[in-house]
Amino acid sequence: MTNRRSATVVRALVLVILACDADAPRPDSTPAPPALEAGPIRRDTLSTAQLARTRVLRQTFADVDTSSLETWVDGFRRDLNPEQELAHWEAIAKAYREYTAVRNLVPGAKSDVFQVLVLRSSAPESWVLANMTLTTISSDEAKEVMKHYTAAPAPITVAPKRR
């Protein structure tokens, strides 16, 4: 699974955690989540077609993700299956373009749309609605966003660090 999607989901989950009641009791035995580290480079480069697809993804998300093309490429070079991960991101991009193309959205709304779609790509709609803290769009709008993402959720698996 790409480090990019893992990092994006972690950022979204941090927003969910920060939105929780700060005064709520927290069990002392709850372990801290492990730090995510980039996986190893698994291939020297992507194919010409994969590089072209990566450029389109970067351009699609430029308003909500300022990562360089090199960062995008590096993430796909680390994937076990870059073709599968590219297809996953293309499904997110398709839904993002469909929703944003016909609406005049402020940058904050675009960020909400992006985060809703990234979380939805990894979790069921009900979980996203129950756990996502929206800053600009409403829950009804989030439901509408998710209608554009038709793939099944693909949960992220994190491999333990090899010693």
Describe the structure.
The chain is mostly helical and 163 residues long. It has one domain. Helices cover 55% and strands 0% of the residues. The protein is globular and about 45 Å long. It starts with a helix and ends in a 16-residue tail after the last helix. Mean pLDDT is 84; it is low at 13-30.
Order of helices and strands: HHHHHHH
Report, as a whole number of angstroms, the end-to-end distance: 20 Å
Q: What is the CA-based Rg, rounded? A: 16 Å
Globally, the shape reads globular
Largest sheet: none
- How many H/I helices? 7
Q: Identify low-pLDDT runs.
A: 13-30
Structural class: mainly alpha
- Beta-strand fraction estimate: under 5%
Strand runs, count: 0
| Average pLDDT figure | 84
Give the % helix. 55-70%
Structure keywords:
mainly alpha, 0% strand, 163 residues, 7 helices
